[in-house]
Amino acid sequence: MNEIKIRFQELIENKNWKTVKNELSNLEPVQIAEVISCLQKSDQIILFRLLSRDQAKESFQHLSHDEQEDTIEALAANINKLTGLLNDLDPDDRTAFFEELPGTVSQRLMQLLSEEEREITTQLLGYPKDSIGRLMTTEFVAVKPNFTVLQALEHIRKFGRDSETLNVVYIVDSDWKLIDDVRIKEIILASPEQSVSEISDNRFISLNAYDDQEVAIKVFADHDRVALPVTGTDGTLLGIVTVDDVMDIQEKESTEDFQKFGGTEGLDMSYTKTSLSDMIRKRAGWLVILFLGEMLTASAMAHFDGEIARAVVLALFVPLIISSGGNSGSQAASLIIRSLALGELKLRDWWYVMRKEIFLGLMLGIILGSIGFIRILIWQQTGIYDYGEYWSLVGASVAVSLVLIVLWGTLSGSMIPIILKKIGLDPATASAPFVATLVDVTGLIIYFTVAALFLSGKLL
User: Fold this and answer.
1) pLDDT at 371 (0 to 100)
2) Per-residue pLDDT tens over the stretch 115-128
3) C-beta atoms surrounding 28 within 10 Å
4) pTM above 0.70, yes or no
5) What is the largest CA-CA distance in the chain?
6) What is the percent of the chain with per-residue pLDDT over 70, rounded to a whole number?
7) What single string gives the DSSP state of each residue in 233-287?
8) How far apart are CA 177 and CA 236, in angstroms?
9) How much of the chain is in helix, strand and coil states, percent to nearest 5?
10) Angle, nearest 10°, between helix axes 29-38 and 41-49?
11) Cα separation of 371 and 367, whole Å?
């Protein structure tokens, strides 16, 4: 790709437009999008303007949202090119693009659409945000059950040119109620005299236009389909959703979950397009909450300041103790949140998760506790550090505390996402920092309580 980039840069610098157009015609849309992404902004729009109408439409869909915005902005001076591009885009891709733009910008661009395309876009934007209705396209081929295979093929040839996909043809009745979907392969291989109803089995999978887009992701994953029909509540065929659009949504959902799990609100736009004020607003809330939580850590230590003053050696292990608990909690939270997202775990599985995490927490705690005790033993015996006359009790306090704190961290990290999902919140908000902060505070209480039991009458 680097060689292609250099090649096009040279051609643009030499203003060899004819060669540029010829070489672009030999590339796939995804390759053209990659070339455009590699160039400077000023060169990107030059290249885009040299594309044919079909190439521009297909390549635009493979650009990132930021690159799409830059392209639209640069094309504003060429109103004919811009109008042609917006009208040529598939309705679902155009809707997704408009949805990410500020409302005033979307309204201005809507005026450039033809009456037919504007009506389709308005209809799709009328569905709830993040619903399947926003994701679907109205470009598909449907036939009646009484069509012969020959009639169906003629119908496909006549109306299939603008269809998003021809892998599947849909069968509808006179009221456009979905009856079945048939793979194009079955139609081609059937006898021309057969009726469409004869080759259908009336078994199909459909999506509801008002369902959340995450439902589409799961259905596509379960059934390995290229496209699925979208119906209204009364079973009327409204459109289709293709797998490429679902993959885009899955990437978007994953990005949002990663951002939430990192301790920030999901960004509405890309990092580069998010303003400084929006970034502060998205990140400050969680930081303040976590900061207030960590203040409780200071309060917990203040509560045990007498014990710390009499046995300063205990303070040496505070970072070790609280980090181990936080790390175990973050591990568990990551695994459970992902399993819930993939549908591997349901809310009813909470007892199974708890039992499993209790065992895991104990085993992991014993491993870390043993290492902690051995470390104190080695440092004491080799003279690296003198933990005092009662070093063995200090080691035992650290070891037992690690077992209990890792167990508590593991249980907290696994149960909090399930609890959040139960009350209707996004499990991803059980971010690693949140779990770590909770375990930090409670871990200190556990540590100093255990130390007090072991060292009572000795150091304390």
Assistant:
1) 93
2) 777 777 777 777 88
3) 12
4) no
5) 98
6) 82
7) TT-BEEEEEEHHHHHHHHHHHHHHHHHHHTTSPPPSS-TTTS-HHHHHHHHHHHH
8) 4
9) 70, 5, 25
10) 150
11) 6
